TrEMBL record:
GO BP terms: cell wall organization; cellulose biosynthetic process
Species whose genome carries this gene: Salix udensis
Similarity field: Belongs to the glycosyltransferase 2 family. Plant cellulose synthase-like G subfamily.
Pfam families: Cellulose_synt
Protein function: Thought to be a Golgi-localized beta-glycan synthase that polymerize the backbones of noncellulosic polysaccharides (hemicelluloses) of plant cell wall.
UniProt keyword terms in alphabetical order: Cell wall biogenesis/degradation, Glycosyltransferase, Golgi apparatus, Membrane, Transferase, Transmembrane, Transmembrane helix
Annotated TM spans: 32-51, 57-83, 529-550, 570-590, 660-679, 691-709, 721-744
Protein name: Cellulose synthase-like protein G3
A Gene Ontology term for the protein's cellular component: Golgi membrane
Lineage: Eukaryota, Viridiplantae, Streptophyta, Embryophyta, Tracheophyta
Binding site for Mn(2+): 292, 316
Compartments, record wording: Golgi apparatus membrane
Keyword Cell inner membrane: no
Length: 745
């Protein structure tokens, strides 16, 4: 992860009954600097707004008035985002856990049971072997095995995924004892063998078994069906055909299959295995499914009827466990009587593997996943990030002081399941609660019980609503990353993912539970603003688009809209730009980032603002007006060899035909033309004094747009810009310039 966050001097220690502490917390040392700088910067913003107001008041033409008003609106949006960002900088903290002290206050046999939820939806976008690796990595935790139950939600209802997990169950009987015997850290077999840990005959043998399983699973995926030859026994084949016979239908009943039973299944060393349970909820075109939130609520009910563990871990299908002690670190908080009563969840940062050196698509998302969450943690706790999160089951059922009871007592968070997971009554109830019409009996699911509906960003919505109910959360950020996820390796996938998030966040931002209104009232100004920054993320498109086009079109028409270098107001603009970028750079570097990745981070912020935020906002408002609807598109985890090679080399992937590349290309063309116009004016003898700010903005955009120019003119690979995109963008840029000539004349 790079450098660890610096700590201040005031350390809070939590210990139980005189025993050694389970965890500590201390403020970051840069907090004082953040507060002082915020005061200075705030005065500068007020001065800028005064300058805009004065210019607006003294405008003598409609064009001058309109340009100033557009800049004022853009700077007001930037001001909102700056103010909301300060909430993360006022009280950032860092924590440390001492899992070795857990056994000094409680026996391992007294550790709470753990249910793990893993969701997948499409075997062709989320290859089953990757999902299998995620499941195996948590099944092998350094935690009482009989207390672990792994539930895999297959929302695609695929025989390919079910087959993969049938094979995984067999391999797990070899893998789990191997990990524990050899104290393996990388408990995903794929990650382990990538590091060439095959120096012993035992490791070589395990690798052979794994590779055999992997070949089977990938061959089945390639063929698109499971041939009888891949199923070892007649009994197993008969059961498999029975479970999957309805998967080919768009509407199919629920399938719940116990692949490993912790009460009786043992590994090759004779030790009991964890529960491994495959779940494909019932699907019907007549019933709403609520995307991932619906799948998670189905798991919440199915697990409640089968094991009902008090602790739940939610994972993305590609979030591999990277530290077998992770649940023990979470239990340092979840088993602490001082923190437990109001603690909804313990969130681990999202860390990713396979990112190229410069992180060209900002996949690391350091500000969202590592910097902001430390600021959240100093307030009421971090937002839920969708994966790597340990919940108290009780938090899904109302506020800390008021239990929202489910329809049947067997789903209550304190209900004790005293029957085997494969008993007829348990399985019957599990199928019942996984049916389509179960939720129709109650309006509570998705509103006051379970994961919240109403947004494609169910993680953000759920965490926000929990905190509004009075729950707290805690960030757990150990030196060794707890989980490692995969990243999109194409620009189109990265932008589509961002667009989906933008839509989901706007759904919350413009709902009755908007953080700007409901959130401020329920959580206070700081937490409300912190959540509001994310909710209105897509609004970054307003200032980014304005500054990407307005100064440049004005310069092309020889209209100068910023102060001259010789005027005092110029230094205000210079301070605001350098101060914002300088502090962002400082935050990034102190969080362990590199200069290269910081540059990619700020460049991708501009790219998002001109593409995914624009199209995400448009789609949301069209849906809001009832003109169109959108669905949930799974981000592909499939890796193409050529694309992977270009990604490793730091080369942008523009090969897809998407309108989001058109807007980027139009901006690149306009900025290059504007810079050329400015340089021509200087060469003609015009003073740089009045041109400088607009030329600087154009030049800054041109430097950031280099991958676009390269993709248009200098590349011949499949990742180059499509000719169609280049032509359309050129025509639009020309049309935009012609319109500006009419406006500025």
């Amino acid at each position: 992860m790079g450098a660890r966050p610096e700590g201040g001097s005031a350390i809070q220690v939590t210990s139980i009954g005189g025993h050694p502490p389970l965890h500590t917390v201390k403020p970051l040392a840069r907090t004082l600097f953040n507060r002082v700088f915020a005061a200075i910067y705030a005065l500068s913003i007020l001065a800028l707004l005064f300058y805009h107001a004065k210019t607006l008041f003294y405008s003598t033409t409609l064009v001058s008035f309109s340009v100033t008003l557009a800049l004022l609106i853009s700077d007001l949006v930037l001001t909102f985002f700056w103010v909301s960002t300060q909430t993360f900088r006022m009280f950032p903290v860092c924590r440390k856990q001492f899992p070795e002290n857990l056994t000094k206050i409680m026996e391992r046999s007294d550790f709470p049971a753990l249910d793990v939820f893993i969701c997948t939806a499409d075997p062709y976008k989320e290859p089953p072997i990757g999902v299998v690796n995620t499941a195996l990595s948590v099944m092998a935790y350094d935690y009482p095995t009989e207390k672990i139950s792994v539930y895999v939600s297959d929302d695609g209802g695929s025989a390919l995924t079910l087959f993969a997990f049938m094979e995984a169950a067999k391999f797990a009987t070899h893998w789990l004892p191997f990990c524990k015997k050899n104290n393996v850290l990388e408990r995903s077999p794929e990650a382990y063998f990538e590091l060439n840990h095959t120096c012993t005959s035992e490791a070589v043998n395990i690798k052979k078994i794994y590779e055999s399983m992997k070949v089977k699973v990938e061959h089945v995926l390639e063929r698109g069906k499971v041939d009888d030859e891949y199923i070892s026994s007649d009994q197993e084949r008969e059961a498999f055909n029975k479970w999957t016979r309805n998967f080919t239908r768009q509407d199919h009943p629920a399938v719940i299959q116990v692949l490993l039973d912790a009460s009786k299944d043992k590994d090759i060393a004779g030790y009991l295995m964890p529960n491994l349970i495959y779940v494909s909820r019932e699907k019907s075109k007549a019933s709403p499914h609520h995307f991932k939130a619906g799948a998670l609520n189905a798991l919440l009910r199915v697990s409640g009827s089968m094991t009902n563990a008090p602790i739940i871990l939610t994972l993305d299908c590609d979030s591999l466990s990277n530290d077998p002690e992770t649940p023990l670190r979470a239990m340092c908080y979840l088993c602490d009587p001082a923190t437990r009563p109001q603690l909804a969840y313990v969130q681990f940062p999202q860390i990713f593997r396979g990112i190229n050196k410069s992180d060209i698509y900002n996949a690391e998302f350091k500000r969202l996943y590592q910097i902001n969450v430390m600021g959240f943690d100093g307030l009421s706790g971090p937002n839920y990030l969708g994966t790597g999160c340990f919940f108290q089951r009780r938090a899904f059922y109302g506020s800390p002081s008021s239990l929202a009871s489910p329809e049947i007592p067997e789903l209550a968070p304190d209900y004790i399941v005293d029957k085997p997971v494969q008993s007829r009554s348990v399985l019957a109830l599990a199928h019942q609660v996984a049916s389509c019409n179960y939720e129709s009996r109650s309006s509570n699911w998705g509103s006051t019980i379970g994961f919240r509906y109403g947004s494609l960003s169910e993680d953000y919505h759920t965490g926000f609503r929990m905190q509004c109910e009075g729950w707290k959360s805690i960030l757990c950020d150990p030196d060794r990353p707890a989980f490692l996820g995969d990243v999109p390796i194409t620009l189109n996938d990265a932008l589509n993912q961002q667009k989906r998030w933008s839509i989901g966040l706007l759904e919350v931002g413009f709902s009755e539970y908007s953080p700007a209104t409901f959130g401020v009232k329920a959580l206070g100004l700081s937490m409300g603003l912190a959540y509001a920054q994310s909710a209105f993320w897509a609004m970054w498109s307003i200032p980014i688009t304005a500054y990407a086009f307005l100064p440049q079109l004005a310069l092309l028409n020889k209209v100068y809209i910023f102060p001259k270098v010789s005027e005092p107001w110029f230094f205000l603009y210079a301070f605001l730009f350098l101060g914002a970028y300088g502090q962002d750079y400082l935050d990034f570097i102190l969080a362990g980032g590199s200069v290269q990745r910081w540059w990619s981070d700020q460049r991708f912020w501009i790219i998002r603002g001109l593409s995914s935020y624009v199209f995400g906002s448009a789609e949301f408002f069209l849906k809001f007006l009832g003109i169109s609807a959108f669905g949930f598109n799974v981000t592909s985890k499939v890796v193409d060899d050529e694309q992977s090679r270009r990604y490793e080399q730091g080369i942008f992937e523009f090969g897809a035909d998407t309108p989001m590349f058109v807007t980027l290309t139009v901006a690149a063309i306009i900025n290059l033309s504007s810079l050329a116009q400015g340089l021509a004016e200087v060469f003609r003898g015009n003073s740089l004094d009045g041109l400088f700010v607009q030329m600087f903005i154009s030049g800054f955009a041109v430097v950031n747009s280099w991958p676009i120019y390269e993709a248009i003119a200098l590349r011949n690979d499949k990742g180059k810009m499509p000719l169609k995109t280049s032509i359309i963008a050129t025509l639009l840029a020309g049309t935009l310039y012609a319109a500006s000539c009419f406006i500025f004349r």
